[in-house]
Amino acid sequence: LPAIATFISGSLSIYAWQRREINGARAFGLCAASIFIWCFFSIFEYLSLGETARIIFGKAQYLGISTFPLFWLLFTLQYAQSDRWLTQRLIAALSVIPTLTLILAFTDPWHGWIWQSAYLEITTFPKLVIAHGWWFEYVLMPQSYALVMAGFAVLLKASFVGSGLYRR
Q1: Which of 34, 81, 114, 164 is deepest in the core (most CB within 10 A)?
Q2: 3-class SS letters over the chain
Q3: Which residues pair with residue 131 across a beta bridge?
Q4: Per-residue pLDDT tens over the stretch 38-69
């Protein structure tokens, strides 16, 4: 499944980037690219035999995990033509947590804020078992869910008050 998602999201990202002059296409391309990165590294995590390699690929997934919610919100705001109040300053403010998450993910062995522990569970299909840290649980996840829900709210609002195109 991650391989299929990687192919589809990569294709959508390229397609959107080729049409970046269309309103929302750049943000959609970035949204699809973040999913591509997430799924791409998850493939390598699943295929890796050693614990160290799985941890490295698991951390690399945060390049997509931490950026997707922000790009999703930007896309929905642009698509619904509700982005007039979206300033560089607000985008920078919304980017603080994803940026800090990336820094913390790659420095995690020193503090454990993203992953408190990770180990390879040897079963028929070995898997990486992760105990998430406080940054992941109390900062990243709430912000991510808030941005994704805000994006859905923008689309829901556009479906009720927008033109017939948005209602469909």
Answers
A1: 114
A2: CHHHHHHHHHHHHHHHHHCCCCCCHHHHHHHHHHHHHHHHHHHHHHHCCCHHHHHHHHHHCHHHHCCHHHHHHHHHHHHCCCCCCCCHHHHHHHHHHHHHHHHHHHCHHHCCCCEEEEEEECCCCCEEEEEECHHHHHHHHHHHHHHHHHHHHHHHHHHHHCCHHHHC
A3: 117
A4: 999 999 998 988 888 999 999 999 999 999 99
Instruction: Give residue 5's identity as a one-letter amino acid code.
Output: A
Instruction: Please answer whether residues 150 and 73 qualify as being in contact, where contact means their C-beta atoms are separated by less than 8 angstroms.
Output: yes
What pTM value is reported for the model? 0.88
CB 14 within 8 A of CB 42: no
Q: Establish how many alpha carbons lie within 13 A of residue 12's alpha carbon, considering only the half-sphere containing its beta carbon.
A: 18
Among candidates 14, 34, 41, 36, which has minimal Cα distance to 25?
Answer: 14
Q: Please give the single-letter amino acid code of residue 114.
A: I
For residues 108 and 118, the answer to whether their CB atoms sit within 8 Å is no
| Tens digit of each residue's pLDDT (9 = 90 or more) over 71-84 | 999 999 998 888 88
Per-residue pLDDT, 6 = 95
Mean predicted confidence (pLDDT) in 116-143: 89
Query: Whats the size of the chain, residue-wise?
Result: 168
